[in-house]
Amino acid sequence: MAAIHPQLADDCIHLGRFRLCHLLLMNDRNYPWYILVPDRDNIQEIYQLAPDDRQQLLAESCLLSEFLMDEFDGDKLNVAALGNQVPQLHLHHIVRFETDPAWPTPVWGKQPSLPYTDEALDEIRSLFALAGLDGFENHLDS
After folding, report:
1. Residue boundaries of the structural domains of the chain
2. Per residue in 28-86, pLDDT tens?
């Protein structure tokens, strides 16, 4: 198992994993913000993944994307693999609303982070546990 970069571990909550990727939640309730991190060592870019892993990443990203947009009824979904500060490959999935505090600009640095409460985290964990997403294993179950 590849270690999750310390910055991601500090900024996020580990929710579980799919067949390839860990699913993290950015600890900022300003936005529904989830991150997929492929469980592969020394990978910084998508093209560095083996072809089967690339296909799996796309499948998991699409599955997560559809679920997030259905669940949160967003106006837009931002999906990005930037990696300027964290070199480990990770794919952000941020549900955006025309009413969110950063709209229409990027979310980074627009608002102070609002950490999740224990109750809100329990709700999110339950949401994913009950969603029946193909290949998803809740972190509490693993």
Report:
1. 6-116
2. 999 999 999 999 999 999 999 999 999 999 999 999 999 999 999 999 999 999 988 99
The architecture in CATH of the region 6-116 reads 2-Layer Sandwich (3.30)
Gap between the Cα atoms of 75 and 99, Å rounded:
9
> In angstroms, how far is the first alpha carbon of the chain from the final one?
13
User: Is residue 138 within 8 Å of 125, Cβ to Cβ?
Assistant: yes
pTM score of the predicted model? 0.95
Q: How far is CA 104 from the centre of its chain?
A: 20
Return the structure tokens found at 121: 């985290």
Contact yes or no for 131/67 (Cβ under 8 A) = yes
